[in-house]
Amino acid sequence: MEKDIQKVYFSGEDIQNIVSRLGKQISEDYKDKNLLLVSILKGSVVFMADLMRSITIPCRIDFMSVSSYGSGTKTSGVVKIQKDLDINLEGYDLLIVEDILDSGKTLSYVRKILEARNPASIGICTLFDKPERREADVYADYSGAEVPDEFIVGYGLDYDEKYRNLPYIGVLKPEIYAE
Ligand code: IMP
Ligand code: MG
To answer: Residue 145 — φ and ψ, nearest 5°?
Structure first.
């Protein structure tokens, strides 16, 4: 796996610093609210596990799975709910936890369907943001770091369902995509 990586963008330590900054900010902002973290599977699962432990106020968690990508590196525009939430959202201050905001098509769809379920409020926390690539009108309330228009893997992010278990963020060697 390591041999497929061309360069490391964020080390495990860089990521931990980013995540604890986000956790601190969220704990402050939501201290008088009814926080529910909603992780969008599968990419945000590693981020979610670290973020929830850096949050120091009571919160609940839930998971939702949507598909937006095939095995390539671009959003198809077709978003499908694969697994829905268990919790009824009424009265909760929802914070959607996402790995990366790219075209924004996935999150603008997810946000729309969750808004229709009448949560008290709805916010977005993304670990990474690629603002240059935005097509949908969606922005993050909390963003860990902006990244350039390059495909990154690791820390939950995949290429063809692989590399999610890398403990850092890297860019793959070009020959991996050619295979
Ligand atoms: P969007 O709908 O284009 O914003 O796509 C968002 C989803 O695409 C993310 O949740 C990721 O699963 C995936 N994605 C976007 N960019 C990358 C990347 O650089 N590496 C891995 N997955 C990515
Ligand atoms: Mg993905």
So the answer is: -160, 145
Average pLDDT of the chain to the nearest whole number = 93
Domains parsed from the chain with CATH numbers: 13-148 (3.40.50.2020)
Question: Ligand 2 centre from 167 Cα, in Å?
Answer: 16
Q: Model confidence over 5-47: pLDDT tens digits?
A: 999 999 999 999 999 999 999 999 999 999 999 999 999 999 9
Atom of ligand 1 at shortest range from CA of 133: 3
* 123 in Cβ contact with 60 (< 8 Å): no
The gap between the terminal CA atoms of the chain, to the nearest Å, is 15
Predicted local confidence at residue 73, as pLDDT: 61
State yes or no: is 50 an active-site residue. Answer: no
Comparing C-alpha atoms, which of 32, 11, 31, 24 is closest to residue 54? 24
CA distance 114 to 109: 9
Residue 100 CB–ligand 1 contact under 6 Å: yes
